[in-house]
Structure formats: C-alpha cells, structure tokens
Write a structure and sequence with these properties.
It is a single chain. The chain is mainly alpha-helical. Among the domains are: 139-241, no CATH class; 381-515, Rossmann fold (3-Layer(aba) Sandwich), CATH 3.40.50. It is built from 24 helices and four strands. The protein has a four-stranded mixed beta sheet, sandwiched between helices. Helix 2 packs parallel to helix 19 and helix 5 (74-110) packs parallel to helix 16. It is elongated. The N and C termini lie far apart (63 Å).
C-alpha cells in the first residue's frame, strides 16, 4: 500500500472510533449469556453439565429446559469467554472494535488500486456511521469480518489480482464461520454471485474453480455439531419465533411507529447512490459495470430494508461498489469536460468538502459520539449492583423476569438460578410468548395462574421495557399487596413475595409506594 492509502486508513480508523465505542448495556445485552455459554463449554465439568445440554437444549431456562434448539453461535461464546476471562468487559469492547475495523480495512483495500483516493475517503466517511451501527457486542462482529474478507478474496480473484491458491482460504474460513454466527449462510452466497458473474463473462476456468470452492464451502458449513440441520438453520429459525424484536423489523414498519433513526435516511441515500451511479455506468460505460458487487449490494439493501439488523452489513458491502462507481463517473466527467484544476485548488476543495461531510455526519449521529454519557468501553459498574444486591441478601428464585434482562440473570446467577425467559425467541416455543409470557403481564387472572404454577419468590425486571404489557404489569405489581418493591435503579426493579421467609428482607429494604409514579 502506498503512503496516501496508509494516511486514509489511519484517518478513517480514528473516525470509526468516534462511532464505535459505546458502553455495554449489560441488563439488556446478549453478552452475559455468551460469556456463560463459553464458560460452560470450556468448564462444563465444574457445573456438572454436559456439552450436549448447552448445544442442543434451552439450558438456562426453568420453563422450557428441554426445548430443542440450535445454539448457532456456540463458538463465539468460547472466544468471548476467553477474552472476558483475561481482559474483562474492556477487552471485549476493544476486541469488537478491532473486528469492525478489520472489516472496514478489508473492504477499503478491495478497491485500493482502482479507486480515486479522495472518493475512497469521502465515501468511507459517509458510510462509517452505518458500518458501526451495531455498537452492542455481538457474534455478528465476527460475521462482518468474514464478509469483508470473503469479498476481498473473491473480488481480487475475479480481477486476477490474487492466485487461486489464496481463495482456498474461503472453505476453511467458512468452517470457522459456521460455528460462530448464523450469517455464515452469506459465505456461499458471495461465492455463488461471483460464480454467476464468471458465467456471464464466459470464463470457464473461473466457473470451474469457483464451483469447487462453493462445493467445498457447502461441505465446510455442515461441519458443526448440527450437520446439515445446522447448515439449513438460517432458513428455519423464524418458523419458531414468537416474539417481535426491533432489529428484525422493516424500516417502513418502524417509521410508521414514529421510530426515529438517522440510519434510515442514510440507508436511503446510499441505496439511491448505488442505483443512480449503476444506471449511469450501464448507459455510459457498460464494460465498467460490476455485476457481482452490484447484486451483493442490492441483495443486502433488501435485507436491510426488511430487517434493520442488516443495515451495517449493507453499508459495509456497498462501500467498494460505491467507491468504484463514483471513481468511474468522475473519470467520465473529466474526459467529457476536459477537467483540469490546479493541485492547490483541489486540496482546498477536498478539505472543505471533507469538513462539511464530517460535520453533517457527526450532527446526524450525535447520540453516539464522545459527548454522549454512554460513550466508552466496558460497562458502567453500577449495572452489577442489582446482581450483588440479590446475592448479598441471599434472595432465591424462582424468579419471574422479563425478556430483556434474561442475559444479565444468566451471567449473574447461573447455574444456581435459571430464568423464566431470556432474549432468544428461537429457544422457546412460540406459543409460550403468545399464550403465557405476554398475557400474564396483561391479565391478572393469567398472572395468578402462573404465580400458582411457578411459585415465584421474586421478580427481577428491566423497568425500561416500554412494551405496553410490561408497563401494565409493573403498575399492577407496585399496587399489589402480595409483592414488595425492595430495589430500584435507573434500569432495574426487584420485587419480593410477601411470605415468612422474606419477611426480614422486606422489612429492611421495602420501598414506599409513593416513590413510584403511577398514572
């Protein structure tokens, strides 16, 4: 890489920092469960739990402990646990950032020797807020990295810039990916798109070689504890998905609910740029049209529209295409108007334009930037306070908890206590959410049935859950003489059942009902 590219990479890496570091919200994140997953898989003997239990059943729940499901990110749990055990939550934040940074670098260097460097810089500045959109530490950070590496290898091979031997890395990476995160299905998809492009170009040699890589990758993604069933899981996971979560909803659905997110506007601008620049190239310089990159970008655009969790992947995989398209169009314009400008004037123009673009971008995404109170690495240690409170006062279950806080409970209490529910809809029967979990928060008769059935001793709740049923439930419990609120903080609340066993704890910690505003 030349000096100018190194400077661009350094500047963009620093810009990525501004949007990437967001303190872990432990009460609602999945990270606690992933840590527990890895701990059990590596140290299962001390828990008297077999690896089969954590891989094939809903081990963490007492409501459906034997419900069969595929723990598709089991490998990520091991990596997350190892990093956590050595470097703690701060290490996990840095590791996740490095994954996103690695993904950004690989997508940048896809076009490093074909792109206009100023366009490479401007386009990256515009896309980075979307690429860093998923600030919560998740296994899909690994998927972003694999997506970028696959794209780099396949595109460079298609342009004869790397050898066939190099792309044999792909099946080996696919094997790892298939045990890390459900996005592994996009590995064969990317290979297949470049194979189709080779067919259109009538390059029989590349068709044959990419066909071998594709077949090898299909075999690789079956080398998991689940075999062919695991390989097909991305197509079946939503058949048992009884709880609607924001990240799986469409842009249109969320906008109709007045869900305000600057990413939606950014998404539309990117899609418009892809479509218009591609049309211009098809009309003016058809031979320069990149079929594979265009199809990949449009497919992920559709995925991002119908499920906002895919927007960062869309932005990441659109970067090389947009850089290329804009570079080609710039050359077309320069040739057409015989464009010549003094170097100093160009530098001033680029500097001013960069300043404007960065300012607008940062203004739109201001809630993620360093002046936000949640900017940083690791966790706010206050988030562990309710766990310590429960442990110090020897409060035991059965607990009734809501969907959001399940990961925190698993991290804090497993295996001594198990959860009523956690934030894995696929790990519970969909009828459980429809007929029990939601109705028991809306209707007192169903709550009383479940109370009698499960003999709840405590309630541990993420009180910022703004679903209508959760707010109804909290209001009812505050007014319920059978339950005493004994702990509350910015995010959580704990109730204890009034019985002889809990009498002293309630006497010591009960909160006055007057402190809760009930409309």
């Amino acid at each position: 890489m030349n000096k100018s590219l190194w400077i661009i990479l350094i500047l963009l890496s620093l810009f990525l920092v501004l949007f990437s570091f967001h303190k872990i919200n432990l009460p609602t994140s999945d990270i606690g469960r992933h840590i527990a997953n890895g701990n059990i898989l590596l140290n299962n003997a001390q828990y008297d739990i077999s690896k089969k239990d954590i891989l094939y059943t809903n081990l963490f729940s007492y409501t459906h402990p034997d419900f069969p499901f595929i723990n598709h990110h089991w490998g990520s749990g091991i990596i997350i646990y190892l990093i956590f055990s050595i470097l703690g939550f701060n290490g996990l934040s840095i590791f996740y950032f490095l994954l996103v940074l690695g993904a950004l670098i690989f997508t940048l260097v896809v076009m490093s020797d074909e792109a206009d460097k100023s366009i490479l810089f401007f386009t990256s500045v515009f896309l980075i807020p979307l690429i860093a959109g998923r600030t919560e530490i998740r296994p899909e950070g690994l998927s972003y990295f694999f997506l970028a590496v696959f794209l780099y290898l396949l595109y460079r091979y298609s342009k004869d810039k790397i050898s066939y031997r190099m792309i044999w890395l792909i099946p080996f990476l696919e094997l790892i990916w298939a045990n890390m995160h459900i996005y592994f299905i996009f590995g064969p998809f990317l290979i297949g798109i470049f194979l189709i492009e080779a067919l259109f170009l009538k390059n029989k040699e590349k068709v044959k070689k990419l066909g071998i890589i594709l077949l090898s990758s299909f075999i690789a993604m079956c080398i998991t504890p689940y075999g062919i069933k695991g390989a097909l899981y991305p197509f079946t996971i939503f058949q048992n998905y009884g709880y609607r979560i924001v990240e799986n909803q469409s842009i249109n659905f969320l906008e109709h609910l007045s869900f305000i997110n600057p990413e939606f506007f950014w998404y539309k601008i990117i899609l418009l740029l892809i479509i218009t620049t591609s049309i211009v190239i098809i009309i003016k310089q058809r031979k320069s049209f990149l079929l594979a990159l265009s199809v990949i970008a449009l497919v992920f655009a559709v995925l991002g529209y119908f499920g906002i969790r895919h927007i960062p992947a869309f932005a990441l995989l659109s970067l090389p295409l947009l850089v290329y398209n804009l570079t080609v169009i710039k050359k077309i314009l320069e040739n057409k108007i015989n464009y010549k400008t003094d170097v100093d004037v160009k530098v001033i123009f680029y500097a001013v334009f960069s300043l404007i673009l960065i300012t607008v971008t940062m203004f739109q995404f201001s809630t993620k930037l360093p002046w936000n109170r949640d900017f940083g690495i690791g966790i706010n240690k206050k988030q562990l306070a309710p766990i310590e409170f429960i442990k110090n006062n020897k409060i035991h279950g059965p607990f009734f908890n809501n969907y959001d806080i399940g990961g925190l409970m698993i991290f804090g209490f497993f295996p001594k206590e198990r959860v009523f529910v956690d934030n894995r809809p696929e790990a519970y029967p969909k009828e459980f959410f429809k007929n029990i979990y939601v109705p028991m928060q809306e209707r007192e008769d169903i709550w009383e049935q479940e109370l009698k059935k499960n003999k709840f001793n405590a309630i541990f709740f993420y009180r910022l859950d703004y679903t209508p049923w959760s707010q109804t439930f909290l209001i009812s419990r505050v007014s319920d003489p059978l339950w005493a609120p004994i702990y509350v903080d910015d995010q959580t609340i704990i109730f204890l059942y009034r019985n002889e066993e809990n009498k002293e704890i309630i006497k010591k910690y009960e909160l006055p009902k007057e402190m809760f505003k009930i409309k």
